[in-house]
Fold:
Amino acid sequence: MAADSKLQTAPIENQQHHGDSVFPYVVKSPVPEAGFDQVLPWVAEHRDELLQLSTIHGAILFRDMPIPSIEAFDAFIEALSMPNFPYLESLSNAVRVNHTERVFTANEAPPDVQILFHHEMAQTPLFPGRILFYCEVAADEGGATPICRSDVLYERLKASCPQFIKACETKGLTYTNVMPDADDPGSGMGRSWSSTLGANSRQQAESQLHQLGYSWEWLGDGCLKMTTPPLPAVMQATRQRKTFFNQIIAAYFGWKDDRNDPSQAIRHADGSKIDAEGAQQAMRIAEELEYAVPWQPGDVVLIDNTMVMHGRHSFQGTRKVYASLADKRTQSFSSSSLG
Ligand code: FE2
Structure:
């Protein structure tokens, strides 16, 4: 497989069409029998084109590429030369285990837990511009990664719930999360406060929170309750596209464990409640727009996190899907635009 071999695409079952774009875009190896050592220079050669395609279409599924291991996945990302956003530096509330510097388990939540649609880390001031998933072992049953075009969701919501979208755009959001004293792998949001904030003491945690603009409260059982600064609910992702870039679906319907009550997890930045009907519509339309990535071992998916939401279906058996974050970005919401 020569580095200058052309990029080849192919349709896939249930592929969606939105305007001029398809979802997901599928990239296949131009030479199926090529070895992994031939893939890397090819990826490096096509890097700009691939990143552009991921932004135009929202997601790329790399199929039939010889990517045999986590280390190979790491090298694949390296070949795309995207700046790494280490899990340790993120404010993600999921428990994860690093395997290489760039690659970690997607989420350690138990198999029966469904992870609802979200933009990675839209509930924090720091988020990855792009994320990648790699499948080493596909589950016996279930375990697909549902993905959804957030720009299409925004347009559909604007038409069906204009007041809700107006409130989202003018009032922004704050998220409240109670974090445990020690990692709780039984919860999809069980990362301890010390791990989340990279802090060895309460004092360090407070200094980090202060810097990030959070408010906080220590609870009697060693847990930390923290509330974000105001964050946007809608992003101008490109000149033409706005996206429903927030964590309303996951927080409103899913942030539930021994410590967290979803009804307390999210508010508009002026303290008002989220419109329940709007949140329900968002969930319903996102499910309608879902494409469930049917994992095969060796698959890689590259997602533009500003354009596309993802989740995880529940599963049975062993499932090994790994993730990597790239291109750290920041977001803030200006209170002057509060309506
Ligand atoms: Fe995620």
Q: What stands out?
A: The domain at 8-110+128-140+296-308+315-328 is CATH 3.60.130.10 (Double-stranded beta-helix).
